[in-house]
Design goal:
mainly alpha; 6 helices; binds iron/sulfur cluster
């Protein structure tokens, strides 16, 4: 076995940034399994849309519980669960402002350019990405997934730029808190 010499040391491990890394370029590349499941999610976008609405309803029902415990306190465990569940299903990068219901269940943060409004002008003639020639364009997949969804035309809405300060936070909790606030405001207006 070769001696470890100064200068032969292994390069320091890159810090995880959540940023997209093209496959074949970095040892951090995503496994094939993640990619296969990601495409499954796009093919089953209608079912996942239906399931997400039921799931969001349950989360909203639990609002009094989140409020009693404190949204700040539940943030860490819920973010952990969200990261693992959505990481498995969508190759989620935890941008904290989920757009899946507007992008055919194809996570836009998997686009090498992280475009929130795509596709770019570099889509190849076969529908693949210009940066990753073996990968179908995330936005081509988003369009296909959106065509299966009841509210698929949401893909035509212009998405806001990513707010980097929300990275690694829970979209589930944010959407729930916003829905609860909107519901309470509507009730207060009605009573006034
Ligand atoms: S849009 Fe953001 S939160 Fe949603 S799956 Fe992609 S990285 Fe995760």
């Amino acid at each position: 076995m070769a001696d470890a010499k100064p200068g032969n040391a292994a390069p320091a491990k890159k810090a995880a940034t959540g940023a997209y890394t093209p496959s074949g370029v970095s040892p951090n590349r995503r496994s094939r399994r993640s990619y296969t499941i990601r495409l499954w999610a796009v093919r089953h976008s209608r079912f996942l849309e239906w399931f997400y609405h039921r799931f969001a309803d349950v989360f909203l029902l639990l609002h009094p519980l989140w409020k009693a415990i404190g949204y700040n306190r539940v943030e860490t465990p819920i973010t952990f669960i969200e990261r693992n569940v959505k990481g498995l299903l969508f190759d989620c990068r935890m941008c904290g402002q989920c757009a899946l219901s507007s992008t055919g269940m194809s996570c836009p943060m998997n686009c090498p350019k992280q475009l929130r409004n795509g596709p770019c002008g570099g889509v190849r003639a076969n529908g693949n990405c210009e940066v990753e020639p073996d990968m179908p364009c995330v936005w081509v997949k988003a369009w296909e997934g959106s065509r299966n969804m009841v509210k698929g035309d949401a893909i035509l809405n212009v998405q806001k730029p990513v707010n980097q300060s929300l990275r690694e936070t829970s979209s589930w909790l944010r959407v729930t808190a916003q829905a609860a606030e909107a519901r309470e405001t509507a009730a207060a207006t009605k009573d006034a």
